[in-house]
Amino acid sequence: MLIDTHCHIQFKAYNEDRDEVLKRCTEKNIILNAVGTQLSTSKLAVELAEKYDWIYASVGLHPIQEYVMQVEEEATSFLSRGEQFDYVAYKKLAEHPKVIGIGETGLDRFHMPDGVAQELVMEKQKQVFLQHAKLAAEVGKPLVVHVRDAHREMINIISNFKSARPTGGFQISNSPGVIHCFTGNWEQAGQYLDMGFYLGFTGVVTFSPKKTDPKPQEDLLEVLKKVPLNRILVETDAPYLAPQKYRGQRCEPWMVGEVVTKLAEARGMSSDEVAQITAQNAKKLFDFA
Ligand SMILES: [Zn+2]
């Protein structure tokens, strides 16, 4: 059994052939977390989770959905909406028994809207993230955190809310959530780990280093080798980030097996062992029944 702890199987990238994709997942005995990025995709994730016992959902507003902008990503492009975080509507979804996580939410300095000062965008992202953290504490479910080009800021925010000052006093649990699609270095990883977070690894770990700039991939490999085994989660972020073997294709949740293989190789373990340990970790953080 493999658990894809972060994918977007509810996205329209699968509207034409979702049943076939789901069939491929069941053939490989996959359990998955369908992660919402706005209210509509959060609702769709919950609907899928109601329909299939092996699908769970997370609900949240992705930072790039907070402003209207055109987003180009590998295998897809879309117009983000400029949505406000509706605490009441998200709370209603968050209380659903098949909802296991709050997010994805976080900071993204990579995608910036035109015509808005960067500080304003980052401040808004921070406030929306804190709303998610409040909701997570309120419903007792872990955070699913997105960080792109903003580790320093995120580490600052989290270390502050661990001391509960800027949040209005709500408490964050000792297993506050996962830094999904972690691609940072060991120093950053260590800080998240110290604050109780799990690290989620995607197909990015299977990519070949860029010839012009191999450092980020070398740093990531160092993290893969050093991160404590009991804090590792595996994920795909499908439809994005297909592993090297399938690069350029639409990613599907069963491809999480490639991430497991890479981890096994980095740690000198068998794929079965890594699959088992990461599934245990996923069940410890998230309420996969
Ligand atoms: Zn995602």
UniProtKB/TrEMBL annotation:
Record carries keyword Iron: no
Gene Ontology molecular function, alphabetical: DNA nuclease activity; hydrolase activity, acting on ester bonds; metal ion binding
InterPro entries per record: DNase_TatD-rel_CS, Metal_Hydrolase, TatD-like, TatD/YcfH-like
Source organism, top-level taxon: Bacteria
Keyword annotations from UniProtKB, A to Z: Hydrolase, Metal-binding
Binding site for a divalent metal cation 2: H146, H180
Residues that hold a divalent metal cation 1 according to the record: H6, H8, E104, D237
Signal peptide range: none
Matches recorded under CDD domains: TatD_DNAse
Name listed for the protein in its UniProt record: Hydrolase TatD
Species in which this protein is naturally found: Candidatus Magasanikbacteria bacterium CG_4_10_14_0_2_um_filter_37_12
